[in-house]
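Table S2 (continued). Query chain:
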Amino acid sequence: MHEDMIRLIGPGGAGKTTAGVALARRLDIPFVDLDQQFANRYGNISQFLGTHGYQAYASRNIQVYLDTLASCPEEAVFALSSGFMTYGIEAHPAYPGIIQGIAGSRSTVVLLPAFDFEMCVAETVRRQLQRPFCRPAEREEQVIRSRFGVYWRMPVMKCETMKPVDVIVDDLVKYLLPNIRLQPSAAGAMMSRRSRNVG
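Corresponding output:
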């Protein structure tokens, strides 16, 4: 079930929402943001973390993921929270199976600002500092340095996002379309878009 759902993972500021919305629009399928789903249920994430701590957040975020997946159409672009693939295996009973499934899916993509480690760190920190409720620069740098290897070692497609969003979406479509099955409506929308581009 949901084997063809497109899941976007990567650090904060990698462009998961920006690219995800554009990709969903290109494919004419829904876009789902896990952070937004969590906020809809529990309110501001930063405030939740301050009150309940990271372990409670991780556990509840996994449950929000499961609940959202259960009500989500199979064809969708799903942007996961930045740390979703880095929780401890004790965070939720279903978590080990979840991350194994995501990492083994042909429709999972890692978005990184850059493949070069130091450039990725610098760009991630720069982008994160432009967001409201950001952590201090030193903490943002520490987080991306600790998580980069997790993203990089995943046996899935990786995409650099320091380029125009249309180019990112072109790269994603080129990789994903042979690997997923779209219903006729979505496939038709894709063909229509291709025809407009050729013209």
